[in-house]
Amino acid sequence: MEFWNPYTETLPREKLEKIEFSYFQNLLSYAKANSQLYKDKLKGINIDDIKVFEDIKKIPFTYKEELRKWQEDVDPFPYGGLLGIDIANVSSFRQTSGTTGKPVYVPESYESWQWRVESWCHILYMAGFRPRHRVFLPFGYNVYVAFWEAHYAAEKLGCEVVPGGALDTKGRVNKIIELKANAMCGTPTYLLNIAQEAASMGIDPKSLGIERALGAGEPLPEATRKRIEETYNCKMYDHIGSTETCGFAGMCEAQQGLHIVEPFFLVELLDKDTLSKEVSEGELGVIVITPLGRRSFPVIRFNTNDVAIKGPSTCECGRTSLKLMEIVGRVDDISKIRGVLFSPKTVEQLIRSEFPEIVEYELVVTREDIMDKITLRIEADPKLNKDEAGEVAKRLGERHKIKTNLSCKVVVEPQGTLPRYDLKAKRFKDMRGKH
């Protein structure tokens, strides 16, 4: 097996945890001395009392709303109380996507940016990206951090990088063909959209020559991963990260869960109900994460609001880092509908695994009087006639009821009705709070 960093990726667990705890103590002291947020947040805490791993739970969580608050009318502009260095040493501006509210502005020093890139090198290398790959990045780069890390990390690995911004989807298909790109990064949704566009141009996506791809920005159910692999005849890998925390876990060649990039990050998986105890292997936990090497924007015990299944620290690839076996989704997305616990990921898994005739979908939950109503809007393959599309809709409704214990209305929409997404797809719309 090959490793980007053979030493850290194969360290025994006790050594990894010892290093991470030491880094955590150092970051805690640094943040309390240099960040307005943590000067305030940690003022009642004696850093010397954090002596063993279990003491980490004495440190309060950090929430996204706090980050926003500490940038509102707080100097220095625009980073406010989150800045951990002199603003003169900030060399790069990034921000969150803003999909859940006002964006958070993220300052990066040269050192902190290189730390982020190095973490991403682990992610790409685990996914089999090598110098022989010409990597196509099908996005318009901007202030949002997405794909900047992938770009610089791919370069550091020795790959050739093709930035695919300022092109529409058809133009990107043509550029992949023109340059014979053989690797790609993108949201699972958009990778499928590119394949759909290629097919509409009379081009078999398998003929594009993509050998491997890395997903970003969305959960990647197993059925969606396999559909992408079958569509392109490639290997598809997953990763997880955010602007606040950086990319912190990725999938190795075994394609069984995501390895946390240790000792770059200290990751806790805590029970959903109390957020007070670590869950056991195989259980669902909320991801709480501390990036251990970034000082320009220190973040301690950040509650990501993401839910994952805790995995083992063993793998056939030989890495000793802890694994997340499945990213289930966000806490906010896992809700009760008619008294039944529901995850939108279940519907995606169903559609991607059993309904290749469906090219796009949207799930809408509304409330009429006191009754919750689920509407599943779909676009069928244009090769299907009206009766065939109706039969697909009927079968989907039946399978949805079996899979979720919830009935739904399936509506077949005309081609091009449903939105297409370049970045994070928003297929689940819970409208009940608007009544």
Task: Tell me the overall shape.
Answer: globular
Strand adjacency order, main sheet: 8-9-10-14-13-12-11
SS class = alpha/beta
CATH fold assignment of the largest domain: Rossmann fold
> What is the alpha-carbon Rg in Å?
22 Å
Average pLDDT works out at: 93
The total tally of domains equals 3
What features would you describe in this structure?
The chain is an alpha/beta fold and 435 residues long. It has three domains: 8-115 and 240-330, Rossmann fold (3-Layer(aba) Sandwich); 127-237, Rossmann fold, CATH 3.40.50; 335-430, GMP Synthetase, Chain A, domain 3 (2-Layer Sandwich), CATH 3.30.300. It is 30% helix and 25% strand. The chain has eleven helices and 20 strands. The strands form five sheets. A seven-stranded antiparallel beta sheet has the order 8-9-10-14-13-12-11. It has a five-stranded parallel beta sheet with strand order 4-3-5-6-7, with helices on both faces. The protein has a four-stranded mixed beta sheet with strand order 19-18-17-20. β5 (183-186), α8 (188-200) and β6 (212-215) form a beta-alpha-beta unit. It is globular. The chain starts with 5 loop residues before the first helix and ends in a 5-residue tail after the last strand. The model has no long low-confidence stretch (mean pLDDT 93).
